[in-house]
Amino acid sequence: MEQTCKNVYITTPIYYVNDIAHIGHAYTTIIADMLARYSRLAGYNTYFLTGTDEHGQKISQSAEQRGKTSQEYADEISGKFRTLWDDFDITYDKFIRTTDEEHKLGVQKAFQKMFDKGDIYKGEYEGFYCVPCETFFTEKQLVDEEFCPECGRPTSIVKEESYFFKLSKYEDKLIKWYEENEDCILPRSKKNEITNFVKGGLKDLSISRTSFDWGVKLPESMNEPKHVMYVWLDALMNYITALGYGDKEENMNFWPANVQLVGKDILRFHSIYWPAFLMSLDLPLPKHIAAHGWWTRDGQKMSKSKGNVVNPKEVADAYGLDAFRYFMLREVPFGQDGDFSQKALMDRINSDLGNDLGNLLNRISGMSGKYFDFKIDSKDVSKFHQKELDEVNVLLDNLDGYLYNMQINRYLEDIWKILTIANKAIGDYEPWAKMKEGKTEEAMALVALITNIMAKVSLLLDSVMPEKIAKISESLGIKISNENFTKLITNRELISTTTITKVDQLFPRIEEILLTQPSNEKEEQKQETKKETPKKEESKEEDDNLITIDQFFETSLKIGTIVEAQEVPKSKKLLKLQVDLGEGRNRQILAGIKEFYSAEDLVGTQACVVANLKPAKLMGMLSEGMLMAAKDENGLSLIRPEAPKKSGTKIS
Ligand code: ME8
């Protein structure tokens, strides 16, 4: 995002509609939203694009599995993405769908132009194709000569007539672009990887398919009704078709994009294919392609296909949307992977937001109310606090640079350093002591300093936590506007006077009760994930991990009689059971079987129980064992004795 340019164009990847959104998608979208909000406030003419990627074999297969047409399925999932972003108050200017007519026309125009230029030719493609990744691989790239290097699934050999894009022709030009534009790919470490890859040689790219038909047709003039476009050609073009490329071109003045955000998984497509296509179309190249890292969960890659996703809506509902946004942007340095942990989220809320930010506002309203009837005057701030103002200004100097280089966590770290200056000044100057000594002017200068710092911080954090900042700015009596941004941030000025209003606590301490809900979701999902481990791995484990009879007997299995059963409120899956294992007292067991059994039906029945499991807490309740069950596509069944047995009978 160059400061000199008037227009700012920010894009996210367009998300596949083969499943619903998870926090990885939310992360990309929140970063883009933050940049867009910041750019607007700083006075740039901003355009922010997001949307959904709806063509390709993967989508048509997902639709088929659900008994829907590809279009019906794409409509449904695209709608869910859009609803989520609307719930999250994401300020996109356009939500593009690759099934939009204007998009399809634009892609066809682009194809025609590249063809007319001599960059596209017809040939035959034979390669190893991974359907879930929509990507061809060479034999060398495969794992164990068969499996996809990206997702580990089996590939299939596909041979088909195909059009090719002369990617090899752009090898030198791409290398020149990387070398001449230091920050064209961020973080810079990623740029080296890409440069080396391209230096290793590029093969021409197959850009049409005849093996399925859910895609954009080639331009009519080609007379190739069997061909549809390669989904990545179709998808990448969204960044210009959204601006009207090939049609009305109404927003093409936003091109080239300033920041194109992508996950590191799709950086190659964006930093090799995409600029090569643009060169072929004689269009300028984006200023920055910025690749962020992966969110993992419990150290594992999180993905729609693995089923171990964290639902961003649930997290935002439990902890607050602004806190979630802050956490995502602050926790992990851009470009690096991060593990999603509720403990870390809770710490950020209680410490950074509650103690540092929320408390400072309380102190402003407390001191201004007690000493000055809530009226603030900045006239003596520079006289008594030039040192603090200078310190703040030094930090402000760096903030732009951090944002423009996608060092968002450092941007936030430095804003917190500014808050520390304010909190420290209160301790250093003790306005209550000044008041006692009759030094009212000095006390006022201090409270006004803090108020000004809070006002500056609010302008800088509005893009990160718009809802909470609206409350803070209301309390400070200062509007979040471009005018104030220019005055307080760009020109380093102070507000002259204002009146403070009291607000309720902004970030109440998050206690365990809030924490336990999502973490139980996590436990529940974990159990699900375990059951859904891919077949290949299961059978491998069975072969490799044979156990001895002694190892088997380490597990204590017993017959239990269910004497009481209740639903657990707010849980989709859990039932709370009291189970008699012949021990003279009942054990409480929480079982994830609510979808398959009603509480009443279970009372009086028996089941096999794992009796020596370490007790665990689910939804804040103790669970002292596990019922055994088997689940297949027809549902779940508890494992029970064929004829009634005494409670506590050992199973061997
Ligand atoms: O790749 N951590 O779509 P997609 C962080 N349609 N970010 C993650 C993530 C994770 N665990 N998982 C996904 C596609 N993302 C193509 C893009 S663009 C022309 C076409 C984010 O639904 C990340 O930004 O698989 C990733 O690049 C994007 O979601 C891909 O989502």
Structural features, described:
The chain is an alpha/beta fold and 652 residues long. Among the domains are: 342-499, Isoleucyl-tRNA Synthetase, Domain 1; 549-638, OB fold (Dihydrolipoamide Acetyltransferase, E2P), CATH 2.40.50.140. 45% of the residues lie in helices and 18% in strands. The protein has 22 helices and 27 strands. The strands form eight sheets. Strands 1, 2, 3, 4, 8, 12 and 13 form a seven-stranded parallel beta sheet that branches. A five-stranded antiparallel beta sheet has the order 21-20-19-22-25. A hairpin with a 5-residue loop joins β20 and β21 (586-591). The longest helix is centred in the middle third of the chain and has 31 residues, at 342-372. It is flat, with a radius of gyration of 30 Å. Residues 512-545 have low confidence and may be disordered. Bound molecules: ligand ME8. Residues 13-16, 24-25, 27-28, 53, 235-236, 238, 262-263, 265-266, 294-295, 302 line the site of ligand ME8. Ligand ME8 is lined by residues 13-16, 24-25, 27-28, 53, 235-236, 238, 262-263, 265-266, 294-295, 302.
